[in-house]
Amino acid sequence: MNLYLLRHTQPDVAPGICYGQTDLGLAASFDAELQRIRAGLAEVHVDHVHSSPLQRCQRLAAALAAGKVHQDPRLMELDFGEWELQLWETIPRGLVEVWTEDYVQHAPPGGESFFDLQQRAISFFDEVSANNEDLLVVTHAGVIRALLAHALNMQLLDAFRLRVDYGSLSQLELQDGRVTVSAVNRRF
């Protein structure tokens, strides 16, 4: 089984804005990014396409899928709660510092921790890996980092060392009950 983790393309959001589960549209560069991704995936065969229900993933997944796209809320980005759509610089510095010191266990007010995100991502992975099919999963950087950290037995606190660019592909292989990472942040 191969699990191809594809991060969505550039969203339409101003720099410095905190966003996670906010349903953002895509930047004007979407068509050009889509063509590069489509060409890069030309030799990749998948049995099914899964996607976060947020439109920045759903639109890319629909453009790449030959059939139905399976939406799954477990593939959504981190919920930043009250911080969603706020400028990072306007969020009280003390609150951000507490969160950044242990974002694995601490959640922004009204949001979720990175540990919570990883648990839902692992739940998705465990469910789909039982089918032994090759899947394309269009999702977000947080979900991709969480699954890569899980596969690499990496401390979740270190997951943000992994670079996951817009439109990049990471790949997990599951064979004989063992998960390996075949690619991280492959750009097209």
UniProtKB/TrEMBL annotation:
Designated name of the protein: Alpha-ribazole phosphatase
Gene Ontology BP terms: cobalamin biosynthetic process
NCBIfam families linked to this entry: ribazole_cobC
Pfam families reported in the protein's UniProt record: His_Phos_1 (PF00300)
EC number(s) on file: 3.1.3.73
GO cellular component annotations of the record: cytoplasm
Major enzyme class: hydrolase
Coiled-coil regions, chain positions: none
GO MF annotation list: alpha-ribazole phosphatase activity
